[in-house]
Every structure is written in structure tokens, then in C-alpha cells.
Design a protein that fits this description.
single chain; mainly alpha; 6 helices
């Protein structure tokens, strides 16, 4: 039987990151973001919400699996998870809040490395927990290319 407390602890950080990120993102889309030159492979805006919701859900499930792991050596995994959640939110602030594709690019590159590190640490504790974050890594890889392209075009 899943622990309710562990479920809350697992899902709260990623969905809080999503909420905080949206505070910076939504106001910037109609004016600033729509006015930017974007590459031809830029997806329509309606794609981002469902994709991020799924990724935050998978992130929460993976963290629940890590929290539930019998392995006692999990503190570094907790730290890396928390740090990547902070950088996930920080990207929205940098790119949309500050309207800086350059700062966004710097933040998302750090985020990418933190996700790789999180996958490695989670995989060592629970293989499924690590694998569940591969779509997150793939999306952030795409988002990094998109961010860099927006910077180059503007």
C-alpha cells in the first residue's frame, strides 16, 4: 500500500515547479514569446502543457520509487532531484520571466546535466525510477536545441 506522505512528497516538488514556472511563462507568451523568431521545428504552444504535465507526473513516480527504495544511501539522490527541480523552475524565470534566451540557455544546459546525474543516481537505486526520466531528458534535450535556436535567431 503506497504511503500517502511519500506520494505527497514525491509529487509536490515537480508540480510546484510546473506551477511556479507557469507564473513566469503564461504572461510572456502572448506578447514577447509570440514576437520572437523561432525555428521551423518549434512545436505549437498547446503541446507544451500536456508534455510537461506528463513529465512532472513521471518525475513524481520516479521519486516515489526512490523514496520507497530499501537502499539507505539516498541522500545524494534527494539532493540532485531537488536541485534539478530548482533549475527546472529557474529556466522558466530566466527565459520567460527575464525574457532572456541567453540566460535560459545557460540554465537549461545545467538542468540537462542535472537530469543525467539524477537518472544515473535513481537507476542505481531503482532501475524503473531512472528509466522513467528518459522522456524528461529527451524533452529537455529538444528544449535546449530550441532555446539555443531562439537565442541565435533573435
Amino acid at each position: 500500500m503506497p504511503s500517502f506522505k511519500k506520494l505527497v512528497i514525491s509529487f509536490l516538488p515537480p508540480f510546484l515547479a510546473g506551477f511556479l514556472g507557469s507564473v513566469f511563462t503564461f504572461p510572456a507568451i502572448p506578447g514577447w514569446y509570440e514576437g520572437l523568431n523561432k525555428p521551423s521545428f518549434s512545436p505549437p504552444n498547446f503541446i507544451f502543457g500536456p508534455v510537461w504535465t506528463l513529465l512532472y507526473f513521471l518525475m513524481g513516480v520516479s521519486f516515489y520509487l526512490v523514496l520507497s527504495s530499501k537502499n539507505k544511501d539516498k541522500k545524494e539522490s534527494y539532493f540532485v532531484f531537488a536541485l534539478q527541480v530548482v533549475f527546472n523552475t529557474l529556466w522558466s524565470f530566466a527565459f520567460f520571466g527575464l525574457r532572456s534566451p541567453l540566460l535560459g540557455a545557460l540554465v537549461i544546459i545545467i538542468l540537462w546535466f542535472l537530469i543525467v546525474l539524477m537518472i544515473i543516481k535513481f537507476y542505481r537505486l531503482n532501475k524503473l525510477a531512472g528509466l522513467l526520466n528518459l522522456p524528461y531528458l529527451a524533452w529537455v534535450s529538444f528544449a535546449t536545441i530550441l532555446n539555443l535556436s531562439v537565442y541565435a535567431l533573435n
